[in-house]
Amino acid sequence: MLVVISLYIASAISQFLEWCESRKLELHTLEPIIIAAYIEELGQRRSPTTVKQNLAAIRMLMDYLVVGQVLPFNPAAAVRGPKHVVKVGKTPVLFEDDARKLFEAIDASHVVGLRDRAMIGVMIYSFARVGAVVAMRVKDYYTQGHRAWFVLHEKGGRHHRVPAHHKAVEYLDAYVEAAGIAKEGSSKLFRTARGKTRELTDRGMTQSDALRMTKRRAKRNLSRTLRHLES
Q1: Are 8 and 58 in contact (CB under 8 A)?
Q2: What are the Cα distances from residue 187, in Å, to 141, 201, 205?
Q3: N or C: which end of the chain has fewer CB within 10 A?
Q4: What would the pLDDT profile of 134-162 be if each residue is shown by its tens digit?
Q5: pLDDT value of residue 223
Q6: pLDDT digits 0-9 by tens, 190-211
Q7: Who contacts 190 (Cβ-Cβ below 8 Å, separation ≥6)?
Q8: What value does the mean pLDDT take over residues 120-144?
Q9: SS3 sequence, the chain?
């Protein structure tokens, strides 16, 4: 689910940036009225649901740039999307409240739960590919000055350095401390666990491991929500 969401967010952001580039608009010149114009134009050829999902993706991008001190404020925060009614069968976007519920559903009383929460946090708050996240080593999460950073290993051997969102930092710090791996710089950051013992191994998680984990966590979150509604 998270992989599909990340792909959708990346596509929505790419379309918006292409629109800005075609009009020679730079990030630091963006204002609410400009983003509102894009949303209005998008609404002429897309459904209200799609427009709201695209606006949500743009807001996430702008929040990311504000955290990274690229922008002084989020110009998309005040922009309103079209009203719509969500029908059964539509694939949902992971909005902020959805992400919060997903994190709350993870049992963080042991290292495996802390690991899963940290990994999902990095994917959500950094727009990172699963493959890039599982390739991270302990040294790829570090602090420089007053800012925490991630080094993401992209395809073709490229490295992408991005500022870490404060929630991802919170989750990663808790995981690294519990795992006792802070000084193991060259070792994999996210590691497999030994069955029911919940002890971490020295072997890094694969992309398949991460996908199975996110699906499992998403299903548990859904079950938790249903129990809450039934109570």
Answers
A1: no
A2: 12, 11, 12
A3: C
A4: 999 999 999 988 889 999 887 777 788 88
A5: 54
A6: 999 987 778 999 999 999 998 8
A7: 115, 118, 119, 133, 134, 136, 204, 205, 210
A8: 88
A9: CHHHHHHHHHHHHHHHHHHHHHCCCCHHHCCHHHHHHHHHHHHCCCCHHHHHHHHHHHHHHHHHHHHCCCCCCCCCCCCCCCCCCCCCCCCCCCCHHHHHHHHHCCCCCCHHHHHHHHHHHHHHHHCCCHHHHHCCEHHHEEEECCEEEEEEECHHHCEEEEECCHHHHHHHHHHHHHHCCCCCCCCECCEEEEHHHCEEEEEECCHHHHHHHHHHHHHHHHHHHHHHHHC
Residue appearing with tokens 């800012």: 147
Helix axes 96-104, 207-230, angle to 10 degrees: 90
Task: Tell me if the pTM is above 0.85.
Answer: no
The residue behind tokens 């959805």 is 98
